[in-house]
Amino acid sequence: MRTSKLIFGLLAVLASGALLAAGADMGQVEKQATNWTAIAMFGVFVAGTMFITKWAASKTKSAADFYTAGGGITGFQNGLAIAGDYMSAASFLGISAAVMANGYDGLIYAIGFLVGWPIITFLMAERLRNLGKFTFADVAGYRFQQTPIRAFAASGTLVVVAFYLIAQMVGAGQLIKLLFGLEYWMAVVIVGALMMVYVLFGGMTATTWVQIIKAVLLLCGASFMAFMVLIKFGFSPEAMFAKAVEIKTGLALKDAKLIEEAAKTGKDIAVLAAAKGDSIMGPGSFVKDPISAISFGMALMFGTAGLPHILMRFFTVPDAKEARKSVGWATVWIGYFYILTFIIGFGAITFVLTDPTFLDAKGVLKGGGNMAAIHLANAVGGNVFLGFISAVAFATILAVVAGLTLSGASAVSHDLYATVFKKGNADSAAELRVSRITTIVLGVIAVVLGIAFEKQNIAFMVSLAFAIAASANFPVLFMSVLWKDCTTKGAVIGGFLGLIASVALTVVSPSVWEVTLGNPKGSAWFPYTSPCLFSMTIGFVGIWLFSILDRSANAQQERADFAAQLIRSETGIGASGASGH
Amino acid sequence: MKDDLGDRIRANPKYQELVSKRNSYGWIMTLSMLVVYYGYILLVAFNKDFLAQKTGAGVTSIGIPIGVGVILFTIIITGIYIRRANTEFDDLKAQVIKEATK
User: Is domain A2-24+31-571 annotated with CATH 3.40.50.1820?
Assistant: First the structure.
């Protein structure tokens, strides 16, 4: 009751803040007004979330409160929070930008992000909730020797979190640079600092509620944008697509490369341009070859089931039923969101690419390609709505970064400190202190990495995190829960092999070896866009091979313990309940 | 004590029924999701022209309804599983727990 009142109060404050800002801006010069509206709305969001953090801090007394909000989140709330974690600024800005640039390819990309959810629902959600407590290592290491499995899980978590964090920080820097006219590094520092406040004081309770509010705001904002785009075309997708193709054809006619090609081959430029324009309606160069396509699809599908900050959310609900409801709601919201993003991307073609206000002297989008959705907000809803979407996008980054940091901090404090160093004898207060110190350290690292990776495409960085999650975390989790003969040795060696393979193959793939490291084109050793088909196979085969080779007494015991684990994972008897209530 | 409980649960045919029913259902659903998604991906990889084909006189390609269809399928199949798991399977589970702990 209290929390729902809190939300309504906050929404009311946000709404009134928007009205005030709108009133104050009337009659001012456009560019100036834009900035102040955005800043005002973001200020309101920060004030509101600080209020929530203060409330959450009063409830965050034990390690259980810090990691899982005391286990008292409902399935519906958690579904929104999971969707919030997943609908990161990288996916919102990145996918709408991909659709604007390449049309249909963006849809293929978005679908990949969605299809992991049913797999989690059918195979993982219930077992995760029944076996787990705070981190996914609790599940993966249920019957295993704690030190090695925790060391692996912490590594898997931290590497995934690091890549995902970089993507978020880069997004934040670009966004605020564009909106507030601040230096890139300052924007990154602001995100780092605010996020640390949420996590340090409010733990999972604050992180969850910030995430829920943001998810609601983002879904509302994106719905409005898609609605405004569709209304322009009389709710006819065909009319929208036709206009987009027409605009893309027009742009292709002026494209220097295409003119050159026409001159060289003697083909008619109009024919070439028409083909180029129409290419947004079908699959293009995004999927280069079948191996890359399958590999990338696997990374997105199974990576979802290995993302530590998502897995952690299954421990915030009271039981398996609510865990299932969480994924159900999350799937609904995320699927709906990606359909919106697709419409927004096409909206950006028709509204943004045709309007010189959003383009620089060279005809390139101001603030970079990832700003498609932000400019569209201005085009369909004016300054006030631009302010709203900017504030929401920034809030999105903040919330996702907070969730990631929380999961990184719990890997260090719960898996490494409490279980490995203290052998499970750490008291709650000491564990909490370690989480908070780790939060600060991770915050600083995130800021440094965010600055170091300024020029990377953010949507692409996220796919790296997915490949690692799918190759290391997912196989270990899957095999330890479902395969009787899995042993500590098998899980740890196989998991590390998957982790190393996915990182190494990514480094020698064209996108990193050639683009980032500046080696000559064609020199990359690994020709495919995603390592997952190979690295995930290495992970699974490694686990299988080193498990069956393991003939130690420990291994025999671990196999015998599977029976008890199975009963708990199937029935939930003995599962850690809604603690702290 | 704990082993007693485990043995009692294992001996209960309802538990065996729960595990085999729910797991086979889960795997069938997983398989259908894999078939739909990788079918789509293979279509993208091997037959781009098919997806780029026009549905009618306009510019809309067959790929659009197919892509949106995959999204809707994903949501619907998840919903169907959860519905059955939260009613039928959870009822069966509650019976198993009740009979084992009484």
Answer: no
